[in-house]
Every structure is written in structure tokens, then in C-alpha cells.
Amino acid sequence: MPEFHHWVVPPSSSARHHGGMTTSSPAVEVRDLRKSYRGVEALTGLDFDIAHGETFALLGPNGAGKSTTIEILEGYRDRSSGTVSVLGVDPQHGGLDWKARLGIVLQSSGEQGAATVREQLTHFAGFYPNPRDVDEVIASVGLEDKASSLIRKLSGGQRRRVDVALGIIGRPELLFLDEPTTGFDPEARRQFWTLIEQLKKEGTTILLTTHYLDEAAQLSDRAGIVADGRLVEIGPIDTIGGAEARIPIVRWTRDGKVHEERTETPGAFVSKLVTHGEPERLEVVRPSLEDIYLELVAAHQPTASSEPIISGKA
Amino acid sequence: MTAVTASTPSVATPGRIIRVGFSRIRYEFLTFFRQGDAVLFTFLFPLILLTIFSVAFSSSNFFGKDAAGHAVTAATYYLPGMLAAGVLLSGLQNLAVDIAGEKSDGTLKRLAGTPLSVASYFIGKIGRALVVGILQAALLILAAKVAFGVPLPTDPAKWLTFAWVFLLGVTTCAILGIGLSALPRSGKSATAVIVPIVLILQFISGVYLAFTNLPTWLQNVASVFPLKWLAQGMRSVFLPSTLEAAEAGGSWNLTGVAIVLAIWLVVGVILARLTFRWIRKDS
Asked: What is the C-alpha separation between A261 and A282, in angstroms, rounded?
């Protein structure tokens, strides 16, 4: 996907992200990452890299370990073992100059919001050595009309846009987005996607978690699926789950019964099918990322994978 | 191109930390006055109490006499106590409750993810306590003078005493407030944990009740804490010298005021350094 954007003239700020020595090592490097809380293992050995300029989506059900992973990378939590490098720094020892290179959008919080949108962004911009223009950022999240409103007077989705704005105000090299579009209306989501595409063009590395699989498919170059504290799948969006998971499904109804057939040659199959008469409700479905994701997660449910089925047990 | 990254100015220089600290003061001050409840219970509370005491005891004459033989009014008698209480509220109570709230509502977690230094954050909090405290004291003194006819000192030396007692008092209380903010387990319980401490201190430290009327053991307990000394320092400024004999030890003992407040300042700095965290890791 990003190849299509090469014709866009990158802003000068992207120079530091491309070329030079920083690109020789990945922006994020995770090896055998483990985390346990009072003896309970939340993460049981994660390995992945995120390249400079890449958008990587971390997917998985609630409680699978996504937020634990992202919070370890952000420096909010300490790992139990393994090695982690974020922009060449161990997050457990990341200083202020390291934080100045990050942008963090946490899951939503319930702050007082006693400042206006513009006051809040102007104030936070002052923390960073090379911030973006406040009004441009307000415009990029579509809050021009609300710039002078107190944050506490905004709707949930509007407050979330302020969170995103605060995440990018410092012109981050690496942006963490933990479920950024929760509470967005469809228009705000599209606007957010445009913003992310813009940030990608500028060379920003992005780590995204989301429950919207269409969003992950739209925005990210690669995805990792976390289930039960492990990375069960990782790869470019269009190869996740392997070729088999993408085999089209032909679905039709005959005599009130739904039939399904997975085949590489749906056209040939359908033409054979019609020789027996016109099938009702015929459709050829290519599994979406969501279908593949749900199958993968179902296959790695903690109870299904670690315990044999015991009959009679609730 | 790595040189670009390397030449990005560091955010951890002392000049920058102080500059951002001052921008925090402005931000803190602005947002403080948009929180109605905090304004009422910390900012205006001493003024409300001064009014109540002045009116309730307006015909009482048991507060002593000045050098010219005039009876000391209730308003005159309570002004120093209310000034001391204001310093305690704007410094200790407000900051402890405020920071505990910021810890639980996610404000501190957000700040922790930015290059804001803890020092800048502290400058913002202490600076806000100072600015709010100055406004509060000015309002109290003005109301005492205009509404209740309290005679104000004319000797510049008295105002100098007021200045250092006030500044040392606010700073000490603010830093103790930062330290105490670790005590409540949640923002919701913060008021319930902090207010009783502050209230008891006020009752045993000569803010509401004449200090020397308390039993000796209670006076000794109160003398350990800063508020007793803060109130004593304020009385030395606003009460006539004829009342000095009624103080514990028969003296304003300003040296004692300076020493005890300074000790608590150091205790507060150590406490704040040991207990303050942006977030509780792994909570």
C-alpha cells in the first residue's frame, strides 16, 4: 500500500526518518517478551520487529495481552524477561529525550478536561523540541469548530480526537495508537484514516491496536495477532492466516439447506453447479481479514488449545 | 541524516525545565479556577470562616486589648489564623487531593508519556499554590480591612515577616501536599483521607481555638507540625504586641517558626521524591 504514495513530496521533517543509520535497526525490536502478574503469565514469549516507517497492527481479543505489550513498549510497564528496544532504547530506561520522539495515544481516560482544545494542545506542544503547528493539528483531527471549547464539554468521540491530536503534536518518530477510533462516527473514522495516511507519508512509524479489522486492513502494512499471551500469526495483511485461509467460499441454498464449498476455482465450480439448476442465494465470498482473524483466534482460545475436550464439563 | 536526530535540542536542560515549569503554572492556574468545588472549598473557605467568626463574636471582648487599651476584635484575632489556614488549604490540602485525582483519572499517565519532567510538573503545582495563596491572602486582608475594620500593621518589618512566613509556609505546605498525594488509594477517597488530617491540624494548632487554652500535651503534639508555627508567625504580624505574652513561652518565637517550617520543607522534599510516581507500575 505505501508504494502508491511515493509520488507525494515528503515534508522536510521526514528526512530524519528515512536513510541514514537509524534505519539499519528496526524502530521496535521485541525478543522473547514475557510478562507475569503475581505468577500468572500474561505474555508468554513474543517476538516481532517494526521497521522504520512501517505501520504495524497488533490485533487480538480483549485480555489477550495487546495492551500489556504496548504499555511495555511505551515504558509504562516493566517486562518480566526478554529484550525490548524502542528507537534503540530500552523503554525501562527511556529518558525525556526518548519520550520526545514518541507519540502515545492511550485508551480513553476520564480526565477533568478543564482546558480548551487549543489551550491543551498549545500547552503540550511546549513540552516538545520540534512540535507541529497547533492549528494544523486541530484541523487534521477535524476540531476547528471546537478549538475554543472546554475539553470536558466535548462528546466522547471528540475527546478521543483530542487524544489523537495530543499524540501527534510532538511530531513523533514512533506513534502508539491504542484503540484510537473508539467512539468515532464513520465520518470521523475516515478522517482519521486520512490523517494516518498523511503521517505514514511523512515517515512516521506506527503501532496500532484496534478491534476494527477493516481499519487494520486499511491502514497497516503488517499485523500480528495476539491470543492467549502469544503471537499466533504475523505477516503482511494480505498473507495473514496463510493462503489456505483465503480460499474463496461458494455458498448457496438448495431445498432450504445452506451449502458451502471452499475452492480455488469458484468460477468453474459455479458453472458446474448451475448444470444442476439455478442455485438459490448464490454468493462467492473472499474471507476478509475479520473472517481470518476470527478463525485464528477461535483456534487459539485458551480452553480449546490447552485442554482436551472433557465431556460433561461445563 | 542521523545528525538531524542528534542535533535535536535536548528537552532535559535546566533552562527548558524551568520554562516549561512556568508554562505549567499558567496552565494549572487557568484550570484551577474552572473547577467550581475546589475554588469554594480551598480558596474561599477561610474568607467564609473569617466572616462567620467576625459576625458571631462581633460583640465579644475576650480577645484582649491593644497598647492603647482598645479591645481586640474577633476579626483582628482570627485574621492570622485564617491566613495560616488558607496557606494550608491552598498548599497542602488542594495539592494532595488534586494530584491524587490526577493520578487516578489518567492525567499523570498521559503526562508520563510526554517529555515533561517531574521537576517542571512540581514547579507548576508549587507555583499554582503560591499564586492562588497570594490571591487568597490578599482577599482575606482586604476583606478584613474594608469589611471588618481590622487595623493593618504599618511597620515595614512586620510585612517583611509576613512575606517570609507566607512564602516559606506555602512552599512547605505545597511540597508536603505533593508527598501526601501518595496516601489516598484513589481520587475518590482523596478528600476523605486528606481533609480530616487538615481539619484536626487546624483545631490543635491555634487556628480556631486559642492555642494556650489547649492542654499542654496537645500543645506539645501540635508543636511538632508546621501549622502551629505558621499561625504563630501570622499572629506576630497582625496581632498587637500586647498579645505576645499570651503565646506559648510568652514570645512569638520567629526563630522557632523559621526552623520548624524549614525542617518540614526538607521532610516534604524527601517525602515527595520518595513517594511521587507518575503511575503505579503494574497496578
From this structure: 11
Q: Which of A10, A95, A110 is nearest to A53 (CA)?
A: A10
Residues 6+ apart with CB under 8 A from A56: A28, A48, A50, A206, A207, A208, A220, A221, A222, A223, A224
| pLDDT tens by residue, B33-80 | 888 776 777 788 899 999 999 888 887 777 888 877 788 888 999 999
Cα separation, A102 vs A172, in Å, equals 5
Cα–Cα distance for residue pair A124/A162, rounded to 1 Å? 12
Q: Residues A59, A213: contact at Cβ < 8 Å?
A: yes
State which amino acid sits at residue A132: R
Q: How many CB atoms lie within 10 A of CB B209?
A: 13
Residue among B8, B35, B279 whose CB faces A76 most closely: B279
Region B197-204: what's the mean pLDDT?
Answer: 93
* B44: Cβ contacts below 8 Å, ≥ 6 apart: none
Instruction: Please give the radius of gyration of chain B, using alpha carbons only, rounded to the nearest integer.
Output: 21
Q: How is residue B249 annotated by DSSP?
A: G
- For helices B226-238 and B74-88, the axis angle rounded to 10 degrees is 140
Report the residue from B2, B102, B282 with minimal CB separation from A77: B282
Cα A139–A141–A143 angle (5° rounding)?
A: 65
C-alpha closest to that of A70 among A204, A175, A155, A162:
A175
Count of beta carbons in the 10 Å neighbourhood of residue A287: 17
Candidates A222, A228, A111; CA nearest to A159 is: A111
Dump pLDDT digits (tens) for A148-164. 999 999 998 899 999 99
Please count the other Cβ atoms lying within 10 Å of the Cβ belonging to residue A267.
11
Distance, in Å, from the CA atom of B152 to the CA atom of B146, rounded to the nearest integer, reads: 11
Gap between the Cα atoms of A142 and A284, Å rounded: 39
The answer to whether the beta carbons of residues A8 and A201 sit under 8 Å apart is yes
Distance CA B233, CA B228 (A): 9
B110/chain A closest Cα distance in angstroms: 8
Q: How many CB pairs under 8 A join A and B?
A: 102
Mutate to test the interface with B, among A70, A123, A130 (most CBs of B within 10 A): A123
* Angle at alpha carbon of residue B80, lines to B78 and B81, rounded to 5°: 65
Q: Is the ipTM of this complex over 0.85?
A: yes
pTM over 0.90: no
Separation of alpha carbons B262 and B165, rounded Å = 10
